[in-house]
Amino acid sequence: MAYVASFPYLAFRYREGLKERLGYYEKLKESPLWVHAVSVGEVQAAFPMVKAIQGGGNHEVLLSTITSTGRCMARKLLGDSVRLVYYPWDVPWIVKRTLDRVNPKAYVTVETELWPNLLYELKKRGIPAFLANARFSERSFRKARRHREFWCSLLDCFEKIMARSEEDMTRFLEIGVSSEKVVVTGDCKIDALLARRSMVDVEGLRRSLNPEGKRVLLAGSTHEGEDSVVLEAFSRLKDKVRDVRLILAPRHPHRAQKLWEEAKKVGRAVLLSKKEPDWEIMVVDQVGVLFDLYGIADAAFIGGSLVPKGGQNILEPASWGVPIQHGPFMDDFGKVSRELIKLGCAKVVKTAAELYYEWEAVSNEGAAGEIRCPQGKSYVEGLGGAALRNWEIINKSMQG
């Protein structure tokens, strides 16, 4: 009933693709393999798996997202090779209408995107469902344990749950999922990073944004409460080190205008969309460009780590061999951050002074633009292969 009461609001907020969100899809000539990825991060995780599906047989792929930014990322990565739709609202009659029209041969959802009505209806119709790149954060796990019966029932709808790590698998098992259903396959986002890295024109980016060849420090996916720390550290640094620049990329791009105003108090600040020359601070006001920008960075601070947000994706800069700084809150990437610290590729900072110290050290060593942490780059490359493993499991299950 809550959905019915909020339909006017939902219809306004999600007016783009409204017909599809209501389950009005065009009927396809043949049953597709339906892959669901809610937004940008999940699309990036799904991307290499979709490529593996396309390379492993004659399967039409229907890729659904909830957000328009996720849809844009899917179009950027996969072009016209998949059918893109918006995900239906999880209301019984909308779900039934959707499955009547789509009639998928299988359904694959990525990471933690679980919608009960759809999953129960898939099971009722005998359509196999899979959870790929499955993860269970500590916070979600604690909540799930309080409602164990519900979660067991919901997760039992999946033929296979393909977990990112042993830790994730252990949490699924502790909730009560059968050990026969859960397998560790690794993180598909590693494959996505490696594939996307090969697509980036790094030299073109340097010519466009940093033709003078200055050192570039990057603060990626920052949250409120972190930007002031980053700007303070850079303000101290640019008074001591010549030819250094800062790229500041907020986690939520709508904050870019406000950050630009703050950055102008520290130095010559511009917006990425304007690409003005002779800048000291560039504020990123576009979506889907951060990973590429890590390719021209000499050091990278990871946002969501000075405030308790779990940390953003530390693997992105590591895949480029970039030295990393992050705060103490890296719960979502705890194992990876610990490994990178052991390798000497990551340092923990808690204050602007500590970030300044690390950035000063990087700025006074080696040449601008060189790969400083090849061991971090190799570490990430050694984690690949999850996408193909996921597809092999899905394909084998579909064939009985």
From TrEMBL:
It catalyses: lipid IVA (E. coli) + CMP-3-deoxy-beta-D-manno-octulosonate = alpha-Kdo-(2->6)-lipid IVA (E. coli) + CMP + H(+). Its EC number is 2.4.99.12. Keywords: Cell membrane, Lipopolysaccharide biosynthesis, Membrane, Transferase. GO terms for biological process: lipid A biosynthetic process; lipopolysaccharide core region biosynthetic process. GO terms for cellular component: plasma membrane. It is found in: Cell membrane. Residues 17-191 form the 3-deoxy-D-manno-octulosonic-acid transferase N-terminal domain. InterPro entries: Glycos_transf_N, Glycos_transf_N_sf, Kdotransferase. SUPFAM superfamilies: UDP-Glycosyltransferase/glycogen phosphorylase. GO terms for molecular function: Kdo transferase activity. It holds the Pfam family Glycos_transf_N. The active site is at E42. Pathway: Bacterial outer membrane biogenesis; LPS core biosynthesis. The record marks E111, K189 as: Transition state stabilizer. Belongs to the glycosyltransferase group 1 family. This is 3-deoxy-D-manno-octulosonic acid transferase. It comes from Thermovirga lienii (strain ATCC BAA-1197 / DSM 17291 / Cas60314).
